Prior knowledge:
This protein is α+β, with helices and mostly antiparallel strands. Helices cover about 40% and strands about 20% of the residues. Helix 2 (about 50-60) packs parallel to helix 6 (about 140-160) and helix 3 (about 80-85) packs across helix 4 (about 90-100). It is globular.
Amino acid sequence: xxxxxxxxxxNREPDAAEFDRLHEAGMDDCALxxxxxxxxxxxxxxxxxxxxxxxxxxxxxxxxQLWAVGxxxxxxxxxxxxxRRHGGRTQASFRQLASGQRGPGGFPAPxxxxxxxxxxSWAEISEWLRTEMGDDVPQANGDVIxxxxxxxxxxxxGSLHRTSQVRDLLEMACRPLPNEPKSEAKPEPKPxxxxxxxxxxxxx
Length: 204
């Protein structure tokens, strides 16, 4: 198994009794970080990152009125952090891209702006750099992107009281893609006819 590090953002901060309940449910590998946007910093072993995230969400469901509002994976960066992760651009270059002085424009907006510090999503920046600037930047972990989008969709559906309809929509939308290989179903063995038995025809 692999150990996965990720963050699960919360709709609220659990109290001491609820935190103990989560710990007993198996979340002893998650540290609670409070503040305006509380979140769990998790370090969990699983075969895949999606499985690790799912297991935490299941354990969180043991506490009423506590749910995830987002999933992250070391995603929050300043422009200086982005320059260090990129390795080929300076912080000044990122400032010019963010301000629109260079590049085609449309640089991702900050997630948070406070005390003259802007926090961006590295997943959004790296995607923009690949598609708009042609930079060779590794793509953000797809499991985190899927989990975060799913959690936010669930929150939105719940707020609009459309959870069951969205669930049905997902089931329909998750059909195999045209280029996705389909598993071939093995034909069921036909029962051997008994001596003297007459075969019955099915009428459609």
